[in-house]
UniProtKB/TrEMBL annotation:
Name the UniProt record assigns to this protein: Aminopeptidase N
Entry superkingdom: Bacteria
Signal peptide start-end: 1-21
Catalytic site: E324 (proton acceptor), Y400 (proton donor)
Species: Cytophaga hutchinsonii (strain ATCC 33406 / DSM 1761 / CIP 103989 / NBRC 15051 / NCIMB 9469 / D465)
Lineage: Bacteria, Pseudomonadati, Bacteroidota, Cytophagia, Cytophagales
């Protein structure tokens, strides 16, 4: 037991507790990336066919993206995105070169005539150049070009937040995912290039190998990945709880094959756990995969980036594997429309870690896991940021650890585990392969719960500080009178919380913004009167003298 907690604490101590600082002053680039104006809403992307030649020695890309789309309204102009350090050679439509204009890291494409509404089309964008190099992947993203321990090339990309347009041209907004996608990566012969989905074929000529990948499902643009190394391909399979056989692929550096086989055995019980809570693995036709990377990890759909040195820090589980795999449900299957609402990805996935601990080690241990995470909560900024600016400005990790605590708190507010777990599973079913926003998600939870909990979520998500319970005591004859109220909440905040009675039994009180009181037999009152809240609810206690 103690060893387990020490290992958890060690794992947590290694986690980033502060993100890369971002400016909260927004500019035109932020609006171009984050907002949906008429030049973006006028078309919907259906399919990308991306071809990229990667020169690992020169750290250079050369490629073309064939973008298939459908107009939603008549238009002669659309906005696409590509970082301005990359050169656009040409944009072609029906074998005609189109004019385009660059603006920051976006560009506007002008068609020779107005495209009618509900019209299908496709354009080719040819480009080349040296992409952004990551300063500290995956948090400060970009490409990583490095060497393995045998001094051989090793390259990979991570671009969550900073955007996929740092290495390929597309409509770079989370709300518009292609229905499917193909990728063709050309690399020097001898190296493998691993993308998302299913490897359809390879072609080798003139000292180069082309790896042709297909994604059979919608995919977040930042999840599109390319990993290049001297990989060895390991295959496995997993029989799901529904008896379907899921294909599993591991791409690891060739000299890591023995320890990879042993280390990745944990994938099977983990998948059983997640299927228990959330339903079957959501990308069955693409399969589940782990790809060894020169950075810690990332939730690349169907090709999860893994770089944690094959170490378990939670007894039988590797934090990177369980967290990034959790994103296959929370973030990849159910995805946010706006980067400011990434709590839909990160809060639910961090809470998923807690459910895994509960599944294998019991509820009490999961609460201890939550309490260890609680020390990382700063309460200095709201979890949801400003919309329409591709917001990345969080200074801490509250979206992760506080977000998990919010969900744990709501579970206790709901006080109905059967209902709570059905809501979690139904979210995965009813919003499968969709992008959603907070408003839609909360309306859904309210409907399933049969009660309006807007007061709860808006208090926790849009305010930096958790609810603060003010209280003081007064001795009256043989009783201790306990006065209590919320001092920083919405007027309709109505969360009931437990208090300790005689013999350590619980009863519930419902504070408001005005003082109420409860009388307790003096002999039964002690300083632990509110203590149960520490394990059940995210709040702060403030005792008046």
């Amino acid at each position: 037991m103690c060893r387990f907690l020490l290992l958890i604490f060690w794992c947590i101590s290694l986690l980033p507790i502060q993100s890369v600082a971002q400016s909260t002053t927004f500019n035109r680039f932020d609006s171009l990336r984050g907002a949906l104006d008429i030049n973006r809403t006028c078309f919907d992307v259906h399919y990308y066919d991306l071809s990229v030649k990667i020169d690992v020695a020169q750290k250079r890309l050369q490629g073309v993206n064939n973008i298939y789309f459908k107009t939603t309204t008549p238009t002669s102009t659309i906005q696409l995105d590509l970082y301005n350090n990359l050169i656009i050679d040409s944009v072609c439509y029906n074998n005609i070169k189109l004019s385009f204009k660059r603006d920051s890291n976006s560009f506007f494409v002008y068609f020779p005539s107005i495209l009618s509404g509900n019209a299908f089309g496709n354009i080719h964008v040819y480009y080349e150049g040296n992409p952004t190099i990551a300063k500290k992947a995956p948090w400060d993203g970009g490409w990583v070009f490095t060497k393995d321990s045998l001094n051989r090339p090793w390259a990979a990309v991570a671009c969550e937040g900073i955007g996929a347009s740092l290495w390929w041209p597309l409509k770079d907004h989370l709300s518009d995912e292609p229905d499917s996608m193909r990728m063709h990566f050309t690399v020097p012969q001898g190296l493998m290039a691993i993308g998302n989905g299913v490897l359809e074929s390879t072609d080798t000529k003139a000292g180069l190998t082309i790896y042709n990948w297909k994604v059979n499902y919608p995919i977040n643009s930042y999840n599109v990945t390319c990993n290049i190394a001297n990989y060895i391909h390991l295959t496995d399979y997993h029989v799901q709880l529904n008896k379907d056989t899921l294909a599993i692929d591991y791409y690891v550096l060739d000299y890591n094959q023995p320890k990879a086989w042993n280390h990745f055995k944990q994938v099977h019980p983990m998948l059983n756990c997640y299927e228990h809570y959330f339903g079957p693995y959501p990308f069955f036709r693409d399969g589940y995969a782990l790809v060894e990377t020169p950075y810690w990890g990332m939730e690349h759909q169907g090709a999860i980036a893994y770089g944690n040195d094959y170490t378990n820090k939670i007894i039988d589980f590797d934090y990177i594997i369980i967290h990034e795999s959790g994103h296959e449900w929370w973030g990849n299957n159910v995805s946010t429309k706006d980067h400011a609402e990434m709590w839909i990805h990160e809060s639910f996935t961090t809470y998923t870690e807690n459910l895994l601990v509960e599944y294998f080690y019991g509820y009490d241990m999961s609460v201890r896991y939550l309490n260890l995470n609680k020390q990382l909560i700063k309460n200095e900024e709201s979890i949801i940021g400003p919309l329409d600016v591709n917001y990345e400005g969080w200074q801490g990790s509250d979206m992760y650890y506080k977000g998990a605590w919010i969900l744990h708190t709501f579970r206790n507010v709901l006080h109905n585990d059967s209902l709570w777990f059905s809501i979690l599973k139904n979210i995965q079913t009813d919003f499968a392969l969709q992008t959603i926003d907070t408003k839609t998600l909360l309306a859904y939870i309210n409907a399933k719960a049969g009660k309006d909990y807007t007061w709860f979520f808006e208090q926790y998500l849009y305010h930096a500080k958790p609810p603060i319970l003010d209280f003081y005591t007064e001795k009256i004859k043989k009783n201790m009178r306990v006065y209590y109220k919320w001092n920083n909440t919405r007027s309709d905040f109505s969360m009931s919380i437990p208090v300790n009675n005689a013999n350590n039994t619980l009863s519930y009180i419902t504070p408001t913004s005005d003082y109420k009181f409860i009388d307790v037999k003096f002999k039964n009152y002690n300083k632990n009167f509110f203590n149960q809240n520490y394990n059940y609810y995210l709040l702060q206690l403030a005792k008046r003298p």
